[in-house]
Design a protein that fits this description.
Formyltetrahydrofolate synthetase, domain 3, 562 residues, Rossmann fold, 20 helices, alpha/beta
């Protein structure tokens, strides 16, 4: 009789792992006790002194990890990011992982946390997936302080002549709460404020999160905060945080949140976890300050961008690199056989059965993302994140396809084996870096008109036929260019599940037209958001949210957190 050993959950693996004191991790990076600010024994922030100290160091190589279009089957992009860092660490390389902070909304909803999985995790995973060092709370406070100051300005005489029907700044909460998408405020008479319609975004969709992640220092943070557009006046001219005179207090609320957080993986590889803008709405990358600090402290930085290459990587390459002043040396494209089979037409319930035909049909999705990365002039490696349900025939089919296309490829088993399972990927990446130099080139110029930039992304990154702009979007393009916003990069708000704006069109759809219904100025962050489909800035909870499984035992340990 065969007995199956129960597979440990992520949290069980994390809780049985031994962490080193964070002062030891910092010391291995050449940082002393004055360079870090401790949050207990295993978490710390890099001090302003440390950031200044390493500023003149030579930059290490930045490696971007992205993926095919995600599916409910899971791709394990964060897991591969952590496992690749551990593998390079095991090979004796000086490496730092740079990732985003998880939001409580997805953590308690259905997506789960963002600290990797299995034996490729960042620790302490419970803390990181819950309140961590309070960065997201600080952003929530700054966001809502601004909202309160706007409403107080209306109450106290409205010197700036703000049109209360055209206030675009929303309140924020770091939870999924659909009931707060549209609210009425100021009811109850003259002493309770000015009545108007309002709404809540999830905190990671707040422009303040994007600003924090794209700022290069405190001075730049204040400059960006002051440029944020909060409303329009009765002459339909933009009103900014600078006009209200409140950029200073917002920056003050963010003075600790702007410092990167230092933690470690199960295998004691250092990791900077900092910032987490929405990948659908904003640019979906961790902070420039963290990535830059990592590059100054290590020879290799393994970082990620949200969702597939059509969203996260495109935004990393068009938005983050322009603000940061660095370029990635190579890209890792994560693919799973399970997800490719879904792109080939299977349902999630059918994925455990071998189906080479569906795998072959789904390969078109991988091919498109490879074409996108090479169109930027970047070398790449395909990482096949192995699952236990993958058959030998399916693995050989995928490896043969990659070999036939001359794609550098590595089978990766970091979930099960940690860094050891990523050695082949790390070695393949190092070979690619030795043989190929990046000839990075953005796909559009900032001087291109807004509609040209959007069309370039749709045609070159998504493989679409064209773009249709609503009347509202057409009018906004004219207005934005008249306000002097025409030279900003574009941040596409689109479903992550498809190359198109229809989440049901999997694989590699062709001849589709993207509908741009509205544009949203994120002038502080430094981009124009183009809204497609019905992407929500305040998600809702599923029928059975992950929160139902969460608890704490009598010893204070988290239970059910994945």
């Amino acid at each position: 009789m065969t007995t199956h050993m129960r597979i440990k959950s992520d949290i069980e693996i994390a809780q049985t792992s031994q962490m080193k004191p964070i002062v030891e991790i910092a010391a291995n990076l050449g940082l002393g006790e004055d360079d870090i600010e401790l949050f207990g024994k295993y978490k710390a922030k890099l001090s302003n002194q440390a950031l200044k100290k390493v500023h003149t160091n030579k930059n290490g190589k930045v490696i971007l990890v992205t993926s095919i279009n995600p599916t409910p089957a899971g791709e394990g992009k964060s897991t591969v990011t952590v496992g690749l860092g551990d593998a390079l660490h095991a090979l004796g390389e000086k490496v730092i992982i740079a990732m985003r902070e998880p939001s409580l909304g997805p953590t308690m909803g259905m997506k789960g946390g963002a600290t990797g999985g299995g034996n490729a995790q960042v620790l302490p995973m419970e803390d990181i997936n819950l309140h961590f060092t309070g960065d997201i709370h600080a952003i929530t406070s700054a966001n809502n302080a601004l909202a309160a100051l706007i409403d107080n300005h209306l109450q106290q005489g409205n010197e700036l002549k703000i049109d209360q029907r055209r206030i675009v700044w929303k309140r924020a909460l770091d939870l999924n709460d659909r009931a707060l998408r549209h609210v009425l405020i100021g009811l109850g008479g003259p002493l309770q404020g000015v009545p108007r319609e309002d709404g809540f975004d999830i905190t990671v969709a707040s422009e303040i999160m994007a600003v924090l992640c794209l700022a290069t220092d405190i001075h730049d943070l204040k400059k960006r905060l002051s440029k944020m557009v909060v409303a329009y006046n009765v002459q339909k001219q933009p009103v900014t945080v600078g006009d209200l005179g409140v950029a200073g207090v917002l920056a003050l609320l963010l003075k600790e949140a702007i410092k990167p957080n230092l933690v470690q993986t199960i295998e004691h590889t250092p990791a900077l976890i900092h910032g987490g803008p929405f990948a659908n709405i904003a640019h979906g990358c961790n902070s420039i300050i963290a990535t830059t600090a990592a590059a100054k402290l290590a020879d290799y930085v393994i970082t990620e961008a949200g969702f597939g290459a059509d969203l996260g990587a495109e935004k990393f390459l068009h938005i983050k690199t322009r603000s940061a002043g660095f370029e990635p040396e190579a890209v890792v494209i994560v693919a799973t056989i399970r997800a490719l089979k879904m792109h080939g037409g299977l349902q999630k319930s059918e994925l455990n059965d071998e189906n080479v035909e569906a795998l072959i049909a789904g390969l078109a999705n991988l091919k498109k993302h490879v074409e996108t990365i090479t169109s930027f002039g970047l070398p790449f490696v395909v990482a096949i994140n192995r699952f236990v349900s993958d058959s030998d025939a399916e693995i050989n089919t995928l490896l043969s396809y990659c070999d036939g296309q001359n794609y550098p490829v590595a089978l990766t088993e970091v979930w099960e084996k940690g860094g050891e399972g990523g050695i082949e990927l790390a070695q393949t990446l190092l070979k690619v870096l030795d043989k190929n130099e990046s000839s990075f080139q953005p796909l559009y110029l900032l001087s291109d008109p807004i509609n040209v930039k959007i069309r370039t992304i749709v045609q070159k990154v998504y493989g679409g036929k064209d773009v249709e702009f609503s009347t509202k979007a057409q009018n906004q393009m004219k207005e934005f260019e008249s306000y002097g916003w025409g030279d900003l990069p574009i941040c596409m708000a689109k479903t992550q599940y498809s190359l198109s704006d229809d989440p049901k069109k999997l694989g590699r759809p062709t001849d589709f037209i993207i509908q741009v219904r509205e544009l949203k100025p994120s002038i502080g962050a430094g981009f124009i958001v183009a809204l497609t489909g019905d992407v929500m800035t305040m998600p809702g909870l599923p029928k059975k949210p992950a929160a139902l499984n969460m608890d704490i035992d009598d010893n204070g340990n988290a239970v059910g957190l994945f």
